[in-house]
Amino acid sequence: MAERPELTETGTAGPAGAGAAETGSGPSAERGRAGAGRWLPSGFLAPALVLLGLLVAYPILFTIWRSLFDAGGDTFVGLDNYVAMFTDSQTFTALKNNLIWVLVAPALVTSLGLIFAVLTERVRWATAFRLVVFMPMAISMVAAGVIFTLVYDRAPERGLLNAVVVGVHDVFADPSPFPGARPRDTGPLATRAGAYETRQQARPGQTVTLPLVAITPQRQRELAPARSAQARPGALTGTVWADFTPGAQAKANQIDPTEKGLGGITVEAVSGGRVAATATTAADGTFTFTGLADGAYTVRLPAGNFAQPYNGVNWLGPSLVTPAIIASYVWMWAGFAMVLIGAGLAAIPRDALEAARVDGATEWQVFRRVTMPLLAPVLMVVMVTLVINVLKIFDLIYIIAPGSSQEEANVLALQMYLRSFVGERGDQGLGSAIAVVLLLLVLPAMMFNIRRFRREQG
């Protein structure tokens, strides 16, 4: 029969107690495991903290230090770069434009996102609508800048927006028949206030000739041959024609067989500074004034016959360049706002909406009194995020704004780049000072977002 193990003073078997002591299950072992548990997360976070320090903390501290030195980085100048920045007219323009961006762009994007989000809840093809609105977010800022450079092109044959504007304009205003046409310096016509009129007056029964040049060969090929007007008793007649034949000899101020008549031109008979009669030239360039009282008349071709065609709006000119670029930004970011606001709408309790409708509230009252208050936190997050984004806007302006209008469209991020790296006299001290100011402008919005996230998590 096996012997039982002897019990120790603590009531534990000798061999078993020895095993427990060897495994170290006492209070000191528990403290060791707790210490290891505290250090373990720090070990995992250490690489991320090192990268954060190298990529964020060090550049910020170095930029602040660099802003206190001159352009070459050799001489300590203190706050001189900040003084120069706030006394520079270009930097002041950049600050003004940044203020316009902050006040206009986030409000427009959030408003459009709210409208789109509400609409997508009420249409059957909501998925397709969301896809179309959100698709610009998949395009980079540089690509969007190239797209809108073409959209805003001044030439209607290339610029989409001006093609639409010119098309609408030409529906309500007839284009001039022969833009740019003019008389010869030695011809029978003189220029006065943009119009062309005869140097000598004529009387009923006589014939006048009105030769013009600067008609393009392509346009001349579309015209009918010119014909000399015949004198008629009691009527003043004449011919308006293109006094030039490409590649052929022609006599000036004389209708040659190869020359073309200018049809559709408005002609006026003027007496005493007043228009006595108006006529329109036929396809062969001839015209006739009938019913004129006896007297001397000046024959005039109004300036509207030769006005240059309407070429639309200079969207990227100094006065419109900033609104035009803001419009391209809104096109890109409206989908972002729509998705976030749509998620907020989906999270609103339907019971609250139905209760308001049961109480007799209209849809507008439900939206204003119930939906908007419940959606306010989401709208605020979208607004603050967009404010941070527009404070750093750079690439859209750099790509879209032409050189002639870049100063008028300038913002702080672009001014920082231009001052630091562009030109032979790049001043990285001043550029660093602009970067520090831009960081100080962004920090309040970032802190607001962080505090809001912490309140929501708490």
Automatic annotation (TrEMBL):
Q: Please list the coiled coil stretches.
A: none
- Cite the record's Low complexity compositional bias ranges: 8-29
> What InterPro entries is this protein classified in?
MetI-like, MetI-like_sf, Sdr_B, UgpAE/MalFG_permease
Keyword field contains Membrane? yes
> What residues form the membrane-spanning segments?
43-65, 99-119, 131-152, 324-348, 374-401, 430-450
* Membrane topology recorded in Swiss-Prot or TrEMBL: Multi-pass membrane protein
Q: Residue ranges of the ABC transmembrane type-1 domain?
A: 95-449
Q: Which GO terms describe its biological process?
A: transmembrane transport
- Name a single GO cellular component: extracellular region
Where is it located?
Cell membrane; Secreted
Q: Which UniProt keywords apply?
A: Cell membrane, Membrane, Secreted, Signal, Transmembrane, Transmembrane helix, Transport
- Key word Signal present in the record? yes
Please give the residue ranges the record annotates as the region Disordered. 1-34
Q: Which SUPFAM superfamilies match?
A: Cna protein B-type domain, MalF N-terminal region-like, MetI-like
Regarding protein family, the annotation reads: Belongs to the binding-protein-dependent transport system permease family.
Entry protein name: Sugar ABC transporter permease
Organism, as annotated: Actinomadura craniellae
